C-alpha cells in the first residue's frame, strides 16, 4: 500500500518535472523570438593561391573579415590587403587582418556605443600606429554596422571592396567604388619608413559613408573586389534573391559558398568578359577574362 | 521502500554538491598604470576584461594588459623616486595594481591569472567585500619563471564573505621586460564552503570546474583547472618552503591586526580625554621614573637612543610598541618618528578613523605618501581636507597617486595650506580639472610634478610652469588634454632651466618644434619621447637634444618609425653618460645599438 503511494508520488513528480521543463524551454524560445534586430551571416572565400597560403581564421589570402556583436550594434566588415607589398618583403595579409581584428575588439569591448563605421575604421587604423611591432602595408576596407535600435545600417567604404543590399530581387543600396585611377583603389596604409612620400595613402576620413534604413529579410552582400571584379551584378542579385527573409544560417552558407565558387571559377576563366575586363576596356586596356584574386564573401540577412 | 531511499540519497547529494561559478572580468574599475593610452585599446588595462584572447600564445601582444614600467630602470633613473618610510614596504613590494570586478559576488575558491608574457609579477590578491572591507587572498614573492604562457592559480585563503571586486598587486622590478596579462578568472561558490567539507569540495572540483579553453598546447592536454593548479605546484614554480609560509602568515596576521590596533589605540585615547598633549620633543620625558622602570634595560637608555632605534621600525611595529607600556607608547608616538609617512602599503586600512588616530603624531610631518588610499569612497574629499588642515602646514612632499578623493577643492586646499610644497604627485587623478590645476600657480617652490594620466590642460600647465622656476622633474605621460605639447615645451625651455627629467610618453601633439626647444634645457638627464606619434619623422630635431643636453642618461624614442642610425650618432659623440635608450619599433640597425 505504502509503495503505491510512493510510486504515485514519484509519478506525479516526474510529470510535474516534465511540465516545468517544457514551460521553461518554451519561454526560452519566446526570448529568442523577441531578440533585437540582428544579422544572420555566413562567410565563404578562397585565397588566390592555395599552395602558398596558410589558412588562418578570419583570413582568405590577403583578405580579412570579421563579425562582431554588442548590445547596440551588429557589425560586419571585410578588408583586402594590397598585394604589391609582397615585393618589399611585407605580408599584405597582416595589415588587413590586424585592421579587422581590431575592429572586432573595438566593437566587442562595448565601451563605444553606437560607433559609426567610419569612426570604427579610423580608430582601428590608429591602433595600428599604437602597436609596438610596426605593421606595414595597406588595405582597402568596407564596414557595415546595423544599429539595433533604429534598424538603420551605416556603412563606410575605402577602396574597391563593397556591399550590395537586395530586397525582393531589387538592389536597394550599394557601395561606390573609390579609385585613384584604374586598378588603384583608395587605401589605408602604413608605409615602411623612408617611403612615405612614394606611397598612396588615404586618411580614414576619406571613407565613403552612407546610412540606409533596412527592413526585415533584406539580404546584404559584403565582399572584396575578387567577387565584384569577376561576378556580374545580375548574377549576384539572382543568388541573393533566393535568401529573401531567410534565417537559417545553413541556407545562407550554401548561397555564400555558391557565390564564392562562382567568383573563383570566373576569375580563372580566360574567355569570360568579366566586370574587371569591361572596366579595363573603358580605360583603353585591351583585356579579357577574369581577374584572379583573393575572394571573400560575407552574406547576411537582416532579422528584425 | 527502496525507491524512497534512493530518492533521499539523490536529494542529499544535491544538497552537498557545491556549485562553482567561473567568471571572467566584467569590468576594470581602477589601475595604477598602463602602457597604452586612454584613447587606444592597445596594451591598456581594459584588455583584461573578458575571456582570454591570446592564451596560450606567448608573446608581446596589443590585446594584453601591460603596465607602464618594468625592472629597476625606472627606480634608478634620474627621475626615480624614493619611498617614504621605506621600512613599511616589507619584503614583498609592489609597484602597480589593478582592480577588476565580476558580474556575481562569490566566495572565492580559485583565481586564475592568464599570463602571456614574462609571467611571475603577481604578488598579492585582495578581495573586497560588498561592505567595503578588504581581505588578503594570497601573497607571495615575485617569481622567476620560465618564459612561457601560463595560468597562475595561487592557493587562496578562505574568506568569510562573497566578493566581486579583486585587486591584484604586481612587483615587476625583477623582470627583464614588461609582463603581460590576458585575463583573470574567478572561480567561486554562492555559499561559503564549510571548513570540514573542504575536502569534498576538492574532490568535487575536478568534475564540476572545467576550464573553458580547449587549447592547451603548453600544458600538454590539461583541461581542468584543478589539474593545472596541481601541475603548477608540481613544477615548483612557486616554492612554498615552510619558512616562507610562516613569515607570510605572520605578516598576514599583522595585516589584519593593524587596523584593530589602530582602533584600540584610538579607544585608549578616548578613555583618557584629559590627557596632556603628546610630548613635543624627547628632551622632556613625560613619564614618571616608576613607569620607565617597566621598560627594563631600555630605561637605562636615553630617550634619544630609543627614538633612533624606533626610527627603523615600520608603522605596524610602532603601533605594536605603543602597546608595551606607557613609556614606549609615548615614545612610539613621538612626532619625530613621523616626519615621513608612507601609507601606500596600508591602503587597505586607511580610512577617516585611522587618519584621525594618526593625526596627533603628525605635528612635524613633511613628507606624506597617501597613494592608492581611500578609493571607493573610503575617504571622502572632506575627510582629506580636514586631515590636511590639521597636518599640512609643513608638508614639502605629497604623493596622491590614484586617490579618487582628490578633487578641485582638495588641490585648492593643498595650494593654500602647503606653501613649502616641493613635490606633488597626482597620477591617475582624472577628477581634477583645470580650475584645480590653476590653483597650483600660487606655489613657488615646486621641484617635482607628476601629472601622469591627468586631465591637465595646456593653459593650466603653462601657468604652473611659469610660476615654478625650480622645477626639476616633470611627468606629463598620457596627458590627453594638452592641446599643444610644443607650446608647453617652449615654456619649459624659457622658464625652467633646472629641468632634469621630462616624461612626454604618448604626447601626440609634440612635433619637432618642441624637440628642438628641448635642446635649451641643458641640465636634462632623462627624456621620454616614447609614442609621440606626430614625431615619427624626427628630422634633425634630435640633434639639438644630443648637442644641448650633454648630461643625458636615459632617452626613450619608442615607436619613432623613421629613426635611423644617423639620428643616434650625435648622442654617441656628445652624451658620454648615456645608459638607456629605448628604440622599440624604430628602424635602427643592430650595429649602432651595440655601440
From TrEMBL, chain A:
InterPro entries attached to this UniProt entry: PPM-type-like_dom_sf, PPM-type_phosphatase-like_dom, PPTC7
SMART domains the UniProt entry points to: PP2C_SIG, PP2Cc
Enzyme Commission code(s) on record: 3.1.3.16
Catalysed transformations (reactions): O-phospho-L-seryl-[protein] + H2O = L-seryl-[protein] + phosphate; O-phospho-L-threonyl-[protein] + H2O = L-threonyl-[protein] + phosphate
Cellular compartments per GO CC: mitochondrion
GO molecular function: metal ion binding; protein serine/threonine phosphatase activity
Stated name of the protein: Protein phosphatase
Residues annotated as domain PPM-type phosphatase: 47-302
Pfam families attached to this UniProt entry: PP2C_2
Family per record: Belongs to the PP2C family.
Cofactors (names): Mg(2+); Mn(2+)
Keywords: Hydrolase, Magnesium, Manganese, Metal-binding, Protein phosphatase
TrEMBL record, chain B:
Pfam families given in the database record: F-box-like
Keywords: Ubl conjugation pathway
Record-linked SMART domains: FBOX, LRR_CC
Listed name of the protein: F-box/LRR-repeat protein 4
Coiled coil: none
Gene3D superfamilies: Ribonuclease Inhibitor
Signal peptide: none
Nucleus among keywords: no
The organism's taxonomic lineage, starting at the top: Eukaryota, Metazoa, Ecdysozoa, Arthropoda, Hexapoda
Keyword Transferase: no
Domain F-box: 295-341
Region described as Disordered: spans on this chain: 275-295
Organism from which the protein derives: Frankliniella occidentalis (Western flower thrips)
GO terms of biological process kind: SCF-dependent proteasomal ubiquitin-dependent protein catabolic process
SUPFAM superfamilies: F-box domain (SSF81383), RNI-like (SSF52047)
Amino acid at each position: 500500500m505504502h509503495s503505491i503511494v510512493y510510486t504515485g508520488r514519484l509519478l506525479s513528480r516526474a510529470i510535474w518535472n516534465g511540465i516545468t521543463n517544457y514551460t521553461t524551454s518554451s519561454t526560452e524560445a519566446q526570448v529568442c523570438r523577441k531578440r533585437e534586430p540582428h544579422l544572420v551571416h555566413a562567410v565563404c572565400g578562397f585565397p588566390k593561391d592555395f599552395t602558398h597560403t596558410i589558412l588562418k581564421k578570419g583570413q582568405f589570402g590577403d583578405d580579412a573579415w570579421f563579425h562582431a556583436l554588442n548590445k547596440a550594434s551588429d557589425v560586419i566588415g571585410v578588408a583586402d590587403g594590397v598585394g604589391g607589398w609582397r615585393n618589399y618583403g611585407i605580408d599584405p595579409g597582416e595589415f588587413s587582418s590586424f585592421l579587422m581584428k581590431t575592429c572586432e575588439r573595438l566593437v566587442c569591448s562595448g565601451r563605444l556605443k553606437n560607433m559609426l563605421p567610419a569612426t570604427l575604421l579610423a580608430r582601428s587604423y590608429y591602433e595600428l600606429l599604437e602597436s609596438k611591432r610596426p605593421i606595414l602595408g595597406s588595405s582597402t576596407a568596407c564596414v557595415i554596422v546595423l544599429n539595433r535600435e533604429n534598424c538603420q545600417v551605416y556603412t563606410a567604404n575605402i577602396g574597391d571592396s563593397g556591399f550590395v543590399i537586395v530586397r525582393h530581387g531589387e538592389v536597394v543600396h550599394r557601395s561606390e567604388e573609390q579609385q585613384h585611377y584604374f586598378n588603384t583603389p583608395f587605401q589605408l596604409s602604413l608605409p615602411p619608413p623612408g617611403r612615405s612620400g612614394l606611397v598612396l595613402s588615404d586618411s580614414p576620413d576619406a571613407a565613403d559613408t552612407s546610412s540606409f534604413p533596412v527592413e526585415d529579410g533584406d539580404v546584404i552582400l559584403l565582399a572584396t573586389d575578387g567577387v565584384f571584379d569577376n561576378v556580374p551584378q545580375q548574377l549576384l542579385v539572382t543568388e541573393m534573391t533566393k535568401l529573401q527573409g531567410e534565417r537559417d544560417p545553413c541556407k545562407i552558407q550554401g548561397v555564400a559558398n555558391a557565390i564564392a565558387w562562382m567568383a573563383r571559377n570566373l576569375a580563372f576563366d580566360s574567355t569570360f568578359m568579366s566586370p574587371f575586363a569591361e572596366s579595363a576596356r573603358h580605360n583603353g586596356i585591351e583585356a579579357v577574362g577574369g581577374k584572379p584574386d583573393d575572394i571573400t564573401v560575407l552574406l547576411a540577412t537582416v532579422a528584425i | 521502500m527502496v525507491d524512497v531511499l534512493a530518492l533521499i540519497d539523490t536529494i542529499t547529494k544535491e544538497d552537498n554538491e557545491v556549485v562553482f561559478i567561473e567568471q571572467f572580468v566584467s569590468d576594470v574599475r581602477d589601475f595604477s598604470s598602463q602602457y597604452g593610452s586612454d584613447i587606444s585599446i592597445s596594451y591598456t588595462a581594459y584588455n583584461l576584461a573578458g575571456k582570454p584572447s591570446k592564451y596560450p600564445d606567448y608573446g608581446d601582444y596589443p590585446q594584453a594588459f601591460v603596465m607602464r614600467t618594468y625592472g629597476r630602470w625606472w627606480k634608478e633613473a634620474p627621475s626615480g623616486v624614493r619611498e617614504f618610510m621605506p621600512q613599511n614596504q616589507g619584503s614583498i613590494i609592489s609597484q602597480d595594481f589593478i582592480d577588476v570586478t565580476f558580474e556575481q559576488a562569490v566566495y572565492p575558491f580559485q583565481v586564475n591569472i592568464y599570463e602571456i608574457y614574462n609571467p611571475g609579477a603577481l604578488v598579492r590578491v585582495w578581495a573586497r567585500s560588498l561592505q567595503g572591507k578588504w581581505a588578503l587572498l594570497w601573497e607571495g614573492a615575485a617569481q622567476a619563471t620560465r618564459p612561457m604562457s601560463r595560468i597562475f592559480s595561487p592557493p587562496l585563503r578562505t574568506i568569510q564573505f562573497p566578493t566581486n571586486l579583486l585587486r591584484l598587486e604586481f612587483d615587476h622590478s625583477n623582470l627583464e621586460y614588461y609582463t603581460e596579462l590576458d585575463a583573470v578568472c574567478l572561480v567561486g561558490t554562492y555559499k561559503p564552503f564549510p571548513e570540514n567539507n573542504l575536502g569534498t569540495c576538492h574532490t568535487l572540483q575536478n568534475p564540476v570546474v572545467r576550464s573553458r579553453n580547449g587549447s592547451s598546447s603548453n600544458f600538454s592536454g590539461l583541461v581542468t583547472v584543478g589539474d593545472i593548479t596541481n601541475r603548477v605546484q608540481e613544477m615548483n614554480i612557486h616554492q612554498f618552503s615552510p619558512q616562507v609560509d610562516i613569515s607570510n602568515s605572520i605578516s598576514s596576521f599583522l595585516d589584519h591586526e593593524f587596523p584593530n590596533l589602530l582602533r584600540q589605540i584610538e579607544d585608549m585615547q578616548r578613555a583618557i580625554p584629559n590627557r596632556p598633549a603628546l610630548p613635543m620633543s624627547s628632551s622632556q620625558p613625560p613619564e614618571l621614573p616608576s613607569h620607565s622602570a617597566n621598560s627594563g634595560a631600555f630605561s637605562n637608555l636615553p630617550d634619544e637612543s630609543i627614538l633612533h632605534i624606533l626610527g627603523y621600525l615600520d608603522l605596524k611595529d610602532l603601533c605594536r610598541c605603543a602597546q608595551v607600556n606607557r613609556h614606549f607608547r609615548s615614545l612610539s608616538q613621538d612626532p619625530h618618528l613621523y616626519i615621513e609617512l608612507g601609507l601606500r602599503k596600508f591602503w587597505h586600512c586607511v580610512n577617516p578613523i585611522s587618519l584621525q588616530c594618526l593625526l596627533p603624531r603628525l605635528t612635524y610631518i613633511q613628507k606624506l605618501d597617501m597613494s592608492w588610499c581611500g578609493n571607493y569612497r573610503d575617504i571622502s574629499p572632506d575627510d582629506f581636507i580636514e586631515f590636511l588642515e590639521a597636518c599640512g602646514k609643513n608638508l614639502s612632499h605629497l604623493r596622491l597617486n590614484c586617490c579618487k578623493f582628490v578633487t578641485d577643492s582638495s588641490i585648492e586646499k593643498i595650494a593654500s595650506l602647503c606653501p613649502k610644497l616641493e613635490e606633488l604627485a597626482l597620477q591617475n587623478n582624472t577628477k581634477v580639472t583645470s580650475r584645480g590645476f590653476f590653483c597650483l600657480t600660487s606655489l613657488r617652490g615646486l621641484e617635482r610634478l607628476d601629472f601622469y594620466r591627468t586631465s591637465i590642460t595646456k593653459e593650466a600647465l603653462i601657468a604652473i610652469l611659469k610660476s615654478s622656476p625650480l622645477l626639476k622633474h616633470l611627468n606629463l605621460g598620457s596627458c590627453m588634454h594638452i592641446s599643444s605639447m610644443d607650446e608647453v615645451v617652449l615654456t619649459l625651455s624659457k622658464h625652467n632651466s633646472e629641468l632634469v627629467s621630462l616624461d612626454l610618453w604618448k604626447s601626440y601633439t609634440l612635433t619637432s618644434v618642441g624637440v628642438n626647444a628641448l635642446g635649451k634645457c641643458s641640465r636634462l638627464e632623462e627624456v621620454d619621447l616614447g609614442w609621440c606619434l606626430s614625431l615619427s619623422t624626427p628630422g634633425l630635431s634630435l640633434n639639438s637634444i644630443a648637442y644641448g643636453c650633454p648630461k643625458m642618461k636615459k632617452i626613450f624614442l619608442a615607436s619613432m618609425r623613421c629613426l635611423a642610425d644617423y639620428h643616434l650618432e650625435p648622442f654617441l659623440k656628445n652624451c658620454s653618460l648615456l645608459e638607456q635608450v629605448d628604440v622599440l619599433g624604430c628602424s635602427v640597425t643592430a650595429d649602432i645599438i651595440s655601440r
